[in-house]
Each structure stands twice: as C-alpha cells, then as structure tokens.
Specification:
The protein has 341 residues and is an alpha/beta fold. It has 11 helices and 11 strands. The termini are far apart.
Length: 341
C-alpha cells in the first residue's frame, strides 16, 4: 500500500467516525425534542375532560363545604368541570384508597387533611401521605368544641368539672381516628380528663354529629364554622371556645381555648392529592388553578369571615415538606395518646 492509499484509508475512517458521531448527536437531539414536545403536548392538552375530586367524608361537613366552594372556582381556570364526590367510609380510607388506586393521569384527585396519616397511625390503612403525589396545601380551618343550646357547660374549660361530677356519662361525638378524635384526646390530656371517664360515640362524618348534637343525643362534638356557622348564629348550637391563637372574626365574642387556660391550637389543614406518578406538569397545572381560585378576594373573604379558615397555599414541593414535618409531629402525639378503636 503506497502513501496515497494509506492517506485515503485514514480519511475514510475519519469520515466514518464523524458520520457516526453526527448521527448519534442527531438521534439524541431528536429524542430530546420528542420528549420536550410530548411534555408540552401533555401540558397543553391537560385537562381535556372532567376532573373528579374525591372527598372521603359525607355531605355537610367542613371538608365537603370548603372543597365544593374552592372546586367551583378552580374549574374556571381549568376550563373543565371539577366534580366533587363524597366517598365516606372506613375511617375516611375508602375514598383515599380509591384515589390511590386510580390512574395516575390527573383526572382523579383526593381532597383531604391530616386524616390520611392519622388513619395510618391507627392501623386503619397501610399507607400514609407518601402514597400520593401532593398537589397543594389550600387552607387551615380552626376547630371549635361545641354543644347544644341549653347545655349546662358554656365554656370548654368547664368540661373537666362536669366529667368529674358525672364520670362515664358524658357523650363525645367523633369520627373514629380522625381529626376530631385526635382533638379530644389532646384536649383531655391538657385538661386532666381520663378518656375512661367519658363515652365516645362514633359517627361516619361531621354532618351526622351535627344532627345528633341538635337532637341532644350528644353532649359535645368538635365542629367548625363551615359545618356549624349558621347554627351558631341561630343559637341552636353553642361554640365553647376556638382552638386558635386569636379570636375568630366571625365569632368575636367567643374566647380562645388559650384564654380559657387550655393551651391548645388546633386546625384542620386541607389539601389536594393525586395518585403516585402523576406527571409533574399536570400537578403544576392543577396547583396553579387552585392557587388562582384562592387568590380571588371574594373567596378569601368568605373563607376567613364565614368559615373561620385561612388561605395557606403551598405548592407541591412546599406542601411535601409541610406534610413531612406534620407527619413527625402527629407521630409523636399519636405515641403519647391512645386512639379510639
């Protein structure tokens, strides 16, 4: 092989390698563009049909009232219907499991709160909030120990004395292993009441407790403004105190529990969840719509003044951190008290 042939051979090899590199580069670029185009297409096309918002509680409770109001506003920005569906049962796990097992496409959502983790601590479910993709934290609602009009107890700090006078007789309504169950156990711990000296009466949801309380079938229940504001205003039910650091604007005459000597601040923190592996761009689209809904002045005013609820919007990553912190707090409290089983 002469020098010219050697040179030609070297040139052919260089050209071949260059062609391979260029081809690989073009292929990688094409794949990247395809992925980007697909993500953009998914984002642009979503949502293309109705979204179902599952609430694992019955009608008439705070979760039902609040999520219906917020969903009605959010669908304006999603440009498709957002349909709330009540799915109570098994300590609020029937609805959450339904969403957990739903397709991860963003069309089936869960509207819930601390009950997801509380049910896990109580052994009602084998999953915590980690079984879902957090979409956003929306609101925090102040809880209110309540009774019926004419009951001898008129303030929360009087409950302990009546329990001492009538051990084993007073009836407390709860949704077993839910936020109200947990509220009362914390309240008892702070006021020196033994859970053995009261009777817990289980109900499927807050609405059923309201009916029982109105009928005098219960002594006490943990309510809030979304579920009982009209009944408080009408004088049919009596708020015994508010579990917040300051008095509620809608109940300016009702003292906080702290004012009554009970160092308890207690809110129910509601957010939106999706099945695991729901595409991030869809989660962001959903979060953006709920944020816009909550940013409306009329909505904020209604939540605060009518429902004793503050807007505390936290998008996906911030909500995930919040849930982790809250999980640790709830776990520590769960180890200090015993759930009603």
């Amino acid at each position: 092989m002469n020098a010219l042939q050697v040179l030609l051979t070297i040139c052919r090899r260089i050209l071949l390698r260059t062609s391979i590199v260029v081809a690989l580069g073009i292929g990688l670029l094409a794949n990247a563009l395809a992925v980007s185009d697909q993500a953009e297409a998914n984002s642009a096309a979503f949502p293309a049909s109705e979204i179902t918002l599952v609430m694992p509680f019955g009608e008439g409770g705070a979760t039902d009232v609040l999520f219906r109001a917020i969903a009605e506003q959010a669908q304006t920005y999603l440009e498709v219907p957002v349909t709330p569906v009540n799915m109570p049962g098994n300590g609020a796990t029937l609805g959450s499991r339904y969403v957990q097992e739903a397709p991860a496409d963003g069309y089936t959502l869960l509207g819930s709160h601390q009950t997801i983790d509380l049910a896990y601590f109580a052994g009602l479910s084998d999953y915590s909030h980690d079984a879902f993709e957090p979409v956003a934290l929306l609101t925090r609602t102040v809880n209110i120990p309540s009774t019926y009009a004419g009951h001898p107890v008129t303030q929360a700090n009087h409950i302990a004395a009546m329990v001492e006078q009538r051990p084993g007789e007073l009836l407390f309504g709860i949704v077993a292993n839910s936020t109200d169950n947990f509220f009362w156990l914390q309240f008892f711990e702070l006021t020196g009441i033994s859970a053995d000296d009261v009777q817990f009466v289980r109900y499927p949801d807050t609405g059923a407790q309201v009916v029982a309380l109105l009928g005098g079938e219960l002594d006490f229940a943990m309510l809030n403004l979304p579920s009982a504001n009209q009944l408080f205003s009408a004088g049919a039910l009596l708020p015994l105190g508010v579990a917040s650091e300051a008095r509620l604007l809608a109940l300016p005459e009702v003292p906080t529990l702290i004012e009554q000597g009970v160092e308890l601040v207690n809110t129910t923190d509601r957010g939106i969840f999706a099945p695991l592996d729901t595409p991030p761009e869809r989660l962001e689209r959903l979060a953006d719509a709920f944020e816009q809904a909550l940013s409306q002045p009329a909505m904020t005013h209604t939540l605060q003044y009518t429902h004793g609820t503050v807007v505390d919007f936290r998008p996906r990553e911030a909500y995930e951190r919040y849930l982790g912190e809250q999980y640790q707090q709830l776990q520590a409290l769960a180890e200090a008290v015993s759930f009603e089983r």
